[in-house]
What we know:
24% of the residues lie in helices and 21% in strands. By secondary structure, the chain is of the alpha+beta class.
Amino acid sequence: MEFSDIRLLTRRLIEQVVETGKLQGAALCIYGGGFPCQDVSGLNFHRAGIMGSRSSLFLELARLAKDVEQLCEAEDMGCLGFAECVRMDVSDETAVTAALGWRVLYNCPSGAALARRPRTFWTSVMPVASSDVILKRTGRGHRMSFVCQPEPESIRCFPGWAPLARRGDEW
Protein backbone atom coordinates (compact mmCIF):
# COMPACT_ATOMS: atom_id res chain seq x y z
CA MET A 1 0.00 0.00 0.00
CA GLU A 2 1.12 3.53 -0.59
CA PHE A 3 -0.02 6.58 1.33
CA SER A 4 0.61 10.08 0.02
CA ASP A 5 0.73 11.84 3.40
CA ILE A 6 2.13 10.17 6.51
CA ARG A 7 0.33 12.67 8.71
CA LEU A 8 -2.96 11.01 7.73
CA LEU A 9 -1.90 7.58 9.00
CA THR A 10 -3.69 7.10 12.30
CA ARG A 11 -3.04 4.26 14.72
CA ARG A 12 -6.48 2.84 13.86
CA LEU A 13 -5.65 2.77 10.14
CA ILE A 14 -2.33 1.07 10.90
CA GLU A 15 -4.21 -1.49 13.04
CA GLN A 16 -6.49 -2.25 10.09
CA VAL A 17 -3.53 -2.71 7.73
CA VAL A 18 -1.73 -5.04 10.16
CA GLU A 19 -4.91 -7.04 10.88
CA THR A 20 -5.64 -7.40 7.16
CA GLY A 21 -2.09 -8.61 6.55
CA LYS A 22 -2.37 -11.12 9.39
CA LEU A 23 -5.69 -12.43 8.06
CA GLN A 24 -4.12 -12.90 4.63
CA GLY A 25 -1.30 -14.95 6.14
CA ALA A 26 1.44 -12.34 6.22
CA ALA A 27 4.24 -13.15 8.63
CA LEU A 28 6.16 -9.91 8.09
CA CYS A 29 5.16 -6.26 7.88
CA ILE A 30 7.57 -4.18 5.80
CA TYR A 31 7.18 -0.42 5.91
CA GLY A 32 9.30 2.56 5.12
CA GLY A 33 9.55 6.07 3.92
CA GLY A 34 11.65 9.10 3.39
CA PHE A 35 11.30 12.67 4.44
CA PRO A 36 11.96 15.92 2.60
CA CYS A 37 15.66 16.72 2.44
CA GLN A 38 15.57 20.45 1.68
CA ASP A 39 16.18 21.44 5.31
CA VAL A 40 19.18 19.10 5.75
CA SER A 41 20.81 19.00 2.30
CA GLY A 42 24.34 20.32 2.08
CA LEU A 43 23.35 21.88 -1.25
CA ASN A 44 20.95 24.25 0.54
CA PHE A 45 22.98 27.17 1.86
CA HIS A 46 20.04 28.34 4.01
CA ARG A 47 19.20 24.92 5.43
CA ALA A 48 17.16 24.95 8.63
CA GLY A 49 18.26 21.53 9.91
CA ILE A 50 16.22 18.49 10.84
CA MET A 51 13.61 20.51 12.73
CA GLY A 52 12.90 22.70 9.69
CA SER A 53 9.35 22.92 8.36
CA ARG A 54 9.90 20.15 5.79
CA SER A 55 12.43 17.72 7.22
CA SER A 56 10.76 17.60 10.63
CA LEU A 57 8.31 15.15 9.02
CA PHE A 58 10.78 12.49 10.18
CA LEU A 59 8.98 12.79 13.55
CA GLU A 60 5.87 11.37 11.87
CA LEU A 61 7.93 8.42 10.65
CA ALA A 62 9.15 7.83 14.22
CA ARG A 63 5.51 7.89 15.42
CA LEU A 64 4.52 5.44 12.71
CA ALA A 65 7.45 3.14 13.55
CA LYS A 66 6.45 2.88 17.21
CA ASP A 67 2.82 2.12 16.31
CA VAL A 68 3.70 -0.48 13.67
CA GLU A 69 6.23 -2.23 15.90
CA GLN A 70 3.78 -2.41 18.84
CA LEU A 71 0.94 -3.68 16.67
CA CYS A 72 3.08 -6.28 14.92
CA GLU A 73 4.37 -7.55 18.25
CA ALA A 74 0.78 -7.88 19.51
CA GLU A 75 -0.13 -9.87 16.36
CA ASP A 76 3.06 -11.99 16.56
CA MET A 77 4.24 -10.69 13.18
CA GLY A 78 7.74 -9.82 12.12
CA CYS A 79 8.46 -6.19 11.35
CA LEU A 80 11.00 -4.43 9.14
CA GLY A 81 11.16 -0.66 8.91
CA PHE A 82 13.42 1.51 6.78
CA ALA A 83 13.87 5.19 6.01
CA GLU A 84 16.03 7.17 3.59
CA CYS A 85 17.31 10.71 3.12
CA VAL A 86 20.38 12.53 1.79
CA ARG A 87 23.56 12.54 3.85
CA MET A 88 23.29 15.28 6.43
CA ASP A 89 25.03 16.96 9.31
CA VAL A 90 26.00 14.54 12.09
CA SER A 91 23.77 16.29 14.66
CA ASP A 92 20.73 15.97 12.37
CA GLU A 93 21.53 12.32 11.64
CA THR A 94 21.90 11.65 15.38
CA ALA A 95 18.49 13.23 16.06
CA VAL A 96 16.78 11.04 13.43
CA THR A 97 18.60 7.91 14.67
CA ALA A 98 17.57 8.59 18.29
CA ALA A 99 13.93 9.24 17.35
CA LEU A 100 13.67 6.07 15.27
CA GLY A 101 15.86 3.88 17.47
CA TRP A 102 17.22 2.23 14.31
CA ARG A 103 20.65 1.55 12.83
CA VAL A 104 22.29 3.68 10.16
CA LEU A 105 23.70 2.49 6.83
CA TYR A 106 25.29 4.66 4.13
CA ASN A 107 25.06 4.32 0.38
CA CYS A 108 26.40 6.20 -2.60
CA PRO A 109 24.22 5.08 -5.51
CA SER A 110 26.89 5.59 -8.15
CA GLY A 111 25.68 3.93 -11.30
CA ALA A 112 22.26 3.12 -9.85
CA ALA A 113 20.78 6.63 -9.96
CA LEU A 114 21.21 9.80 -11.98
CA ALA A 115 22.07 11.82 -8.87
CA ARG A 116 25.26 10.40 -7.41
CA ARG A 117 24.73 11.88 -3.97
CA PRO A 118 25.47 9.82 -0.87
CA ARG A 119 22.33 8.67 0.94
CA THR A 120 21.62 7.76 4.55
CA PHE A 121 19.42 4.77 5.31
CA TRP A 122 17.98 3.70 8.62
CA THR A 123 16.75 0.18 9.26
CA SER A 124 15.02 -1.41 12.22
CA VAL A 125 16.79 -4.72 11.55
CA MET A 126 20.40 -4.99 10.44
CA PRO A 127 20.82 -7.11 7.28
CA VAL A 128 22.22 -10.57 7.94
CA ALA A 129 24.51 -12.26 5.46
CA SER A 130 23.85 -15.77 4.21
CA SER A 131 26.09 -18.14 2.28
CA ASP A 132 24.95 -16.36 -0.92
CA VAL A 133 25.40 -12.81 0.36
CA ILE A 134 28.52 -11.11 1.65
CA LEU A 135 28.38 -7.92 3.70
CA LYS A 136 31.88 -6.57 4.06
CA ARG A 137 33.04 -3.40 5.73
CA THR A 138 34.41 -0.79 3.34
CA GLY A 139 35.79 2.10 5.34
CA ARG A 140 34.61 3.77 8.53
CA GLY A 141 31.32 3.41 10.34
CA HIS A 142 28.65 1.08 9.02
CA ARG A 143 29.64 1.28 5.35
CA MET A 144 29.39 -2.11 3.75
CA SER A 145 29.53 -3.68 0.35
CA PHE A 146 26.60 -5.89 -0.52
CA VAL A 147 27.88 -8.67 -2.75
CA CYS A 148 25.59 -11.34 -4.16
CA GLN A 149 24.30 -12.82 -7.35
CA PRO A 150 21.22 -11.06 -8.76
CA GLU A 151 18.02 -12.82 -7.80
CA PRO A 152 16.53 -15.08 -10.44
CA GLU A 153 14.08 -13.40 -12.80
CA SER A 154 11.41 -15.90 -11.71
CA ILE A 155 11.18 -14.53 -8.13
CA ARG A 156 11.11 -10.81 -8.94
CA CYS A 157 7.96 -8.89 -8.16
CA PHE A 158 8.37 -7.04 -11.45
CA PRO A 159 9.93 -9.42 -14.00
CA GLY A 160 12.04 -7.58 -16.54
CA TRP A 161 13.19 -4.88 -14.11
CA ALA A 162 16.92 -4.64 -13.56
CA PRO A 163 18.33 -5.13 -10.04
CA LEU A 164 18.80 -1.89 -8.09
CA ALA A 165 22.43 -2.67 -7.29
CA ARG A 166 25.24 -4.35 -9.16
CA ARG A 167 27.64 -6.85 -7.68
CA GLY A 168 30.01 -5.04 -5.35
CA ASP A 169 27.97 -1.81 -5.01
CA GLU A 170 27.96 -0.23 -1.58
CA TRP A 171 24.73 -0.86 0.31
